[in-house]
Amino acid sequence: MYHLPVLLNESISGLNLKEDGVYVDATFGGGGHSKHILQHLKGGRLLGFDQDEDAQNNSFDDPRFQFIPQNFRYAKNFLQLYNALPIDGLLADLGVSSHQFDVAERGFSFRFDAPLDLRMDVKNPLTAAVIINQYDEQQLADVLFNYGELRHARRIASKVVQARAEKSIQTTGDLRTVLTSFFPKNQEHKFLSMVFQALRIEVNQEIEALKILLQQTLEMLRSGGRLVVISYHSLEDRLVKNFMKTGNLNGEVMKDFYGNIQTPFRLITRKALVPGDAEIAENNRARSAKLRIAEKI
Ligand SMILES: C[S@@+](CC[C@H](N)C(=O)[O-])C[C@H]1O[C@@H](n2cnc3c(N)ncnc32)[C@H](O)[C@@H]1O
Fold first, then answer.
1. From the CA of 159, how far away is ligand 1's center (Å)?
2. Residue with the nearest Cα to atom 3 of ligand 1?
3. Is 265 near ligand 1, meaning CB less than 6 Å away?
4. What are 19-63's pLDDT values in tens digits?
5. What atom of ligand 1 comes closest to residue 213's alpha carbon?
6. How confident is the model at residue 104 (pLDDT cuts 50, 70, 90)?
7. In whole angstroms, what is the distance from residue 124 CA to residue 132 CA?
8. DSSP string, 111-156
9. Best substitution site from 1, 47, 120, 232 to test ligand 1's pocket, by max atoms within 8 Å of Cβ?
């Protein structure tokens, strides 16, 4: 199974699909959400982005569908190229697919001993090995602190720099060995998840790409168009929440001359929707998902 779609019904209904609308799945993956979007379309179109070339194997042979093997940070340009602007809705189901996590040699999981890679786009020159072996101590500490929310980021970075001076750190197993002394009792898994999350976000420049995508939705969505985002950690969710509330990435509330709040979106979800116990029991990877929906005014 490539990937089990998360919050499927909630996100599809959040798009408020119209038969003849133009929709974008910014994170095609296994095509789980896309498949359901297509079922609602008659005269409409769907364009699916994924920067991982493996995702293309899940593409549909369907005249209403176009797969675009690109980073969604270029969404606006590609939609222009495909004559698809403005759009009626965009779905972004952020993060990694189960497929990426399960293929050992992609290096996404510390369950396997594999090269320190973690790239979604294998053409990207920045791998986790480059970060671990070439970033200076301060840069490393910043990545671990900002993206992994690791309390001992500085000490961890210092240990990595010491260890790599003796022998370069090339595999997930090498890294694990270097970090052993930091494992909290019975929480090795949680600690390593935070380290790998930090490395993954930096390798794929995930926050940067999300900011660019969100900003572009202001120009891509038609009035009444829906923005639907599923995020998996607080850094992403905070950005999405602020952006939907205010239309800017800082979450800065803009007011007009009379003090009325100016925002390009109407919030459809005031609080994030999360999966119920049944979905989490069936799909553990759904456990941290948060769904937010907004409509362009
Ligand atoms: C959680 S999965 C999406 C799963 C999909 N909704 C499904 O049901 O099968 C996220 C996918 O988005 C892709 N992705 C993440 N960031 C991306 C970006 N900046 N540009 C393009 N694709 C991206 C990943 O390669 C991965 O395949």
1. 33
2. 29
3. no
4. 999 999 999 999 999 999 999 999 999 999 999 999 999 999 999
5. 19
6. confident
7. 16
8. TS--BS---SSTT-S--HHHHHHHS-HHHHHHHHHHHH--TTHHHH
9. 120
